[in-house]
Each structure stands twice: as C-alpha cells, then as structure tokens.
Amino acid sequence: MTKVEKNLLRLLKPYIPLMIFVLATVAGILLRAVGMEVRSDDFNSFLSGWWSVIAAQDFSGLSQQVGNYNIPYQVIIFLLSRFIGDALFAYKLVSIIFDFLLAGAAALLVATYRRERWFSFAPMMAYAVVLCSLTVVLNSAFWGQCDSMYVSLILLAVCCTMREKHIPAFILLGAALAFKLQMVFILPLYLYYYISSKKISILHFLLIPATDIVMCLPAIIVGRPFGDILQIYIGQTDYGHQIQMNYPNIYAFMCEGKTVENYFLLKPLTIVLAMSVLAAGLLFVWKRGVDLNKPEKFMMTGIWTTFTCLMFLSSMHERYSYLLDVLLIVYFFMTRRHPFVALIAGLISLRGYCYYLFGYYEALPLGMTSIVNIALYAYVTYIFVRETVLDQPVLKLKT
Fold this sequence. Notes:
- The chain has helices at 3-12, 16-35, 41-55, 71-83, 87-114, 121-132, 134-142, 147-162, 166-179, 187-197, 207-221, 228-237, 250-255, 263-287, 295-312, 322-335, 339-358, 366-389; strands spanning 244-245, 316-317.
- It is mostly helical.
- The chain has a domain at 240-399.
- The chain has a two-stranded parallel sheet.
C-alpha cells in the first residue's frame, strides 16, 4: 500500500460511522421499495376494508370501533386518509417511518450502554442491522404490519430506564401499549426491576394505563364508550380461538396440524404456566439479590422474560417474536455476546414470515422449527441463569 493510500484511509476512518449510516439508510429504503406493491392477505381481508370505512367517515366516526386495532392507530389512519388516497401506501408509510425510529432507538440504546456518541461505530452497526433486518423489512413494507411502532417505543423506554429517567420510561411503555397489546411481553422485566432495583414505585406502573387512556381520548371525546379501551384488547386475545397460531413454541410442537378442543379451558392453563415460569425466574432474581441496575443484566432479563411469554402463552402469531428479535440484536451490539442466538432467532422468525407471505413451508415444517426454537429457549434460559443470576459469563467476544 502506498503512502497516499495509507493517508487516504486514515482520513476516511473517522467517517466510517457516517458511511454506515448513509449506506444502511439507502439500503433500507431500497429494500422497502421492493415490497411496497405487495398486497398481503391481511391487507386484502382486513386492512383495506377498515381503511374504506374510516376514510368515508368524519372524525365523529371514531366513536365506533373499526377492525381490531386500538384507538390511537385508528386516529393515525383517519388522519392519513385525509391526505393520502392509496390505503396500501399509507399503511406501509407509517410503519416504515417507525422502522427508522426503531433503528435510531437501537443505536441510542447501544450508545447509552457503551457510553459512546450516537454517531460511532457500534451504534451505527446496530442501526444498520435493525433497519435492514429482513423480518423488519417484511413486517412493514411487505406485510403492512405496524410492530415497529410499539417496539421502537419499548426500546426508548429501556434507554430511559438505563438513564434512570423512570417517568418518561413508563409513559413510553404506556404509549407502546396504546399501539399494541404485545407490549405486555416486556412488563415482567419491569416487575423484576421493581423488586431488584428498588428505584421505582408501584405508582410508576399506573402511568402505563394512564398514558393509554390519554392517547385514546380523541375517540372518547366524540362518544366512544370508555370501556372500549379495554374491550378492544380483550377481543384480540380471543381472536382465532387457537392454542397456536404459527409461532413455533411448545404448543406448535404438540398441536401442529391438529384441532385443539376445549380452547377456553386450555387458554387459562397456558397463562398459569407462563406466569409460573416467570414467577420462578423472579424468585431466583430476588433470592440471589441480582442487580438489574446493570444494563447487560437488565437486557438479558428482558430477553428471557419476553421469550418465556412467547414460549408458554397461547395464540402466539409468528410476528409476536418481533420484540425478541430486536432485543437480541441490540444486546449483541451492546455486549458483543451471543451473536448466533440473535442470528438463529431471526432465521426462525423469517421462516414464519416466508410461510405467511410467500407460502414457503416445505423446507422446515412448523413442528421441526418448534424443536429448534425450544432448544434456543433452553439455551437462552441457561445464559440468563449463568450470566444474570449467577454472574458467570458464558461467552464474551473481544471488543
């Protein structure tokens, strides 16, 4: 290498994070552009019809429930329908905007943990990987789903918690709940944190429903019954009346291709099972005096509790692992630990997306995928016990 080349590389080195940001942003936009014309079954069967009803009404129409999304998302769709005529583009546009917020929140979380500037190498790599993750791209630009909305808010809440800004953290959790019921997957983490850190009050948890109510007020003002705030999510939990809905957990392994009778009897048992496993984890954390003020322990606990909810609760869709996948990516860039866990979890989720969107399922049936996912959960449990509870790192790569 000539002296000129060495000097040129030395000059370019400080701009590597900027180059990663620009390249990832361009790649993220191009990847999403490919899927903008794809009309999923969800769009054809549900989203398109909901848009037509909402677009045909004035603001007072929000007094009636349309579809099964919560009120704040319906308000967003109402506002978009005033300015955008294409329903498919509008749904995907709002989700893609939150994709970028999600990637930015991931970078901010990594920067907070590593005490680096947001515009440094590790945070920008987290931004790039989250933004260009295939499941993130497929979720918004191909499927037209909005999981990046609630997950981006959860990441910001976690970042606030690490900075001990607890009131903003719980407000953000409430905003996440206002968009998606799946926000509850992260609640056990905050219960663990409440017991372990003693830095928050039980009163902080009241900010979650309070924020949800405030965000639903536009519809309440125009005549929506107050009870609808709860009723929407109660209806979502019973949608489909199936123990498994294409997420490869223990029920998918046991019930693949079978019709499960006595759903309403079995569903409470699955909740009890999930709560029992989570309670056992809480007892270990409490008894061992685990310090969840340490960010890496806080994050791994959140990964394990989220994974536990997915593994043992019933009626889990393939999309519900979105939060877990993003947390694993962020955790890797924070700590340089367990990259293969994040990779395998992402591939398992990708199988579900490909099955739903493109009908690809022959390569790895759901039952076989469940075996892999159950084994992954067992390994994550091992990591949680060793690294978080016993404080004995399993693996750490050089930074």
